[in-house]
Specification:
heterodimer; A: alpha+beta; N-terminal domain of TfIIb; 4 helices; 4 strands; 28% helix; globular; B: Rossmann fold; seven-stranded mixed beta sheet; binds S-adenosylmethionine
């Protein structure tokens, strides 16, 4: 799972009002290089919750992202590179996602978060 | 040939799509081709602006990732959701480029509001019409699914869901659940007259009416020249799009434009020449049906 997906994902357990962002427990991170597309990054930027994104990157061992960001930075190649790397090249391969409200743990195996809810959570 | 029973009636999806079934999605060229065609068409109906900017899309019931490959092939990023671990394992093998989630769409999609640029789903949503557990209530599961889909899509974004409803009431249940969630749109039916090629796509737009007032896309083959010349052309040119519950009358009328006896006779002759076994021509060939057929 890339941080792109982590940034969109929230816990939808019944009764939970703020299931975002899911906390991350890391067992294994993998990196896969992909080509950068500045248009995609500019398009995505307004949808990214930056604080959660910077937190997630840090959890995966990448601390080069600024704590805060605004759209003027999209003109900087250096910023785009970092944004791209954290968004699309870092994968949480093994670990756990944790609901911020209930502490419910969603295991991540071979890069796939198991988001299936138990019957009493629906 | 005996028709296989509908998969939806055999077992819950996470059981039906076991390793053996999932294997077919790498080994059966027929299944692969069908999935690819359906996905291409769904992406086409999604009608993303062709500015070349990659979008963030959703593939609901992404399974083995065949449909996702179509999205990647067109340069998009995607997140796939599926309830079958065996199918997702095949997707991993295939080294797909999207991200995968193990999840049940009937429990609602756990995604932030307004972040997704579009969604496709291939042959999956009709599964929600079955109650596979005592706790399952199809209406509620469809409501949870469509409600969460509506919320996570950006305003003006579309969802194209290719479905195989078992019957009219399932189709209505699916469509009305979508409308109740706030979507506008309706069914686009490709090849409505062919039992084999007939495919139904629920084309939905998210957002205020101003954004979603646009007409439904045309069904496949419904040519620009909607002439009255029934004897013209091949089967594809005859296809009509049905539904859109906002305009049922008009659409149904279109649908009545059937081919004449001459066309049928000619078509049958063509097929015979190709060596197909075709029933003999009789006085019933190509006759008019009762209006209520
Ligand atoms: C015909 S397959 C489509 C496969 C996929 N398009 C592909 O390219 O491999 C239908 C898929 O829908 C999934 N499905 C059925 N019910 C589901 C549910 N409630 N939630 C998520 N996925 C579901 C099945 O597990 C199956 O993988």
């Amino acid at each position: 799972m890339r941080l792109l997906t982590h940034n969109m994902l929230s816990s939808n357990i019944k009764g939970v009002s703020s299931g975002f962002p899911l906390r991350i427990e890391v067992e294994k991170v993998v990196e896969k290089q992909v080509e950068m597309n500045a248009d995609f990054l500019r398009n995505m930027f307004p949808k990214i919750e930056w604080k959660a994104f910077a937190y997630a990157a840090k959890a995966l061992g990448y601390s080069d992202l600024p704590e805060e960001a605004d759209s003027s930075q999209l003109n900087s190649q250096d910023f785009l590179q970092k944004f791209h790397h954290a968004l699309l090249e870092l994968h949480l391969e093994e670990g756990v996602l944790i609901c911020p409200e209930t502490g419910r743990r969603f295991p991540v195996n071979r890069g796939i978060p198991n988001m299936l809810l138990h019957e009493d959570e629906v | 040939m005996k028709m296989a029973a509908r998969p939806e009636l055999q077992a819950p999806p996470e059981i039906f799509y076991d390793e053996a079934e999932a294997r077919k999605y790498t080994s059966s060229s027929r299944i692969i081709e069908i999935q690819a065609n359906l996905s291409e068409r769904a992406l086409e109906l999604l009608a993303l602006s062709d500015d070349g900017v990659p979008r963030l899309l959703l593939d609901i019931g992404c399974g083995s990732g065949l449909s996702g490959e179509t999205l990647s092939g067109n340069g998009h990023h995607w997140i796939g959701l599926d309830i079958s671990q065996a199918m997702l394992n095949v997707a991993l093998e295939r080294e797909i480029e999207g991200d995968l989630l193990l999840g049940d769409m009937g429990q609602g999609l756990g995604l932030r509001p307004g972040v997704i640029d579009g969604a496709i789903s291939i042959s999956a949503v009709q599964w929600l019409c079955n109650a596979d557990k005592s706790s399952h209530e199809p209406r509620l599961r469809l409501k949870a699914f469509f409600g969460s889909l509506y919320r996570c899509l950006a305003r003006g974004a579309k969802a194209v869901l290719q479905v195989y409803p078992e019957n009219l009431s399932q189709r209505q249940l699916i469509v009305s659940s979508a409308m109740r969630a706030g979507f506008a749109g309706g069914m686009v039916v490709d090849f409505p007259h062919s039992s084999k090629s007939r495919k139904e796509y629920l084309v939905l737009t998210c957002g205020p009416p101003s954004l979603s007032a646009a007409a439904l896309p045309k069904a496949k083959g419904e040519g620009e020249s909607c002439s009255d010349d029934d004897s013209s052309g091949d089967e594809e040119a005859q296809v009509v799009s049905v539904s859109d519950r906002h305009r049922p009358k008009k659409r149904q009328k279109l649908n009545k434009k059937v081919k004449g006896r001459e066309w049928v006779l000619r078509k049958k002759e063509q097929m015979r020449r190709k060596g197909n076994i075709i029933p003999p021509d009789t006085k019933y060939t190509g006759r008019k049906r009762k209006a209520r057929f």
